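Good morning N.,

You mentioned wanting to compare the apo and holo forms, so I went ahead and generated the holo version with coenzyme A. This is what I fed in:
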Amino acid sequence: MSAAAGPRPTRPRRTCHSVPGSSEKFLAKAPTLAADQVFFDLEDSVARSEKAAARARIIEALNTLEFPEDKTVVFRVNGTDTEFFYRDLIDVVEQAGDKLHAVMLPKVQTPGDIEMTDKLLTQIEMARGFELGRIGIEAQIEDAKGLINVEAITTASPRMETIIFGPGDYSAAIGIPITQIGGKPDGYPGDHLNYLYTKLVVAARAAGIQAIDGPYAAFKDEDGLRERTRLVRALGLDGKWSIHPAQIDVINEIFTPTREQWEKAEGMLAAYADAVAAGAGAAIFEGEMVDEANKKMAERIAGQGRAAGYAA
Ligand code: COA
Ligand code: MG
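and this is what came out, ligand included:
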């Protein structure tokens, strides 16, 4: 039996906040943070000697913490090329799978990484009597092989919910001469990641899933975080990681339309609906033509504004 087919719910993921599984204090703080998603990490924020203890701590946290209803709750396993992956997945999902919305898989290189995770999840769901196919998969693209295979990866399982860019590992793997995770090198006039982001977001849209940008490690540099977040939003991505609580409000703000933008989008939709009711195919709103195409553009912004709580 494979995962249940059908459209998956689209969860809000403007901010996806990383919480190292090594820290009881950080874990306890997770439900209070304003991030749309929190994920408990077993991978690169946890030292090798601490993996088993962190696994137990994450199971305990998932089973005891009370999360707001609309918070997306995820945990990150170690990669499929480590000795930790199978036990991370089996222990955490067996013991706390009913508390999870998705599993995040780092360093994904092939659709096989996703298929293996999907099949293991299905076995655990069957054994534990969990709803089949409910737990989603998030995949990180962090090297050349993963990027080349991204289209097969995004469609490898109906569980796929997001494709995520991992800037630190990617820069190291490709040979981009920087040491700041999420930073940019000297010497290139535009943004050196434009090709990558566009490839990722196109693969995500073709598969009907979300595209998320990874972390900006310089957590005291708010201007730098703003610049990178505005850039990825402009390219169509759905959200970005935060690694420190101070980054959450900045990212949420940038991924939320302003009230003015929301009002304009609602105005365009109303003008278009009136025009269609009167038998016309296009409307005029504030001196601009509105037809079926910008209706769709406006619908996206109107939906984001309503989700953020704007009301007439
Ligand atoms: N999740 C939850 N709470 C966090 C947090 C996180 N990622 N990072 C910091 N906090 C908490 C601190 O416990 C502190 O709480 P308090 O005010 O109740 O004492 C508060 O937020 C402020 O933290 P601060 O003292 O400024 O940061 P720090 O020096 O304790 O930690 C980092 C800084 C960068 C080490 C820490 O934020 C971190 O480990 N981030 C995650 C790294 C990660 O996940 N890496 C892997 C993915 S790239
Ligand atoms: Mg990584």
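The chain has a mean pLDDT of 95.

Happy to go through it together on a call whenever suits you.

Best,
F.
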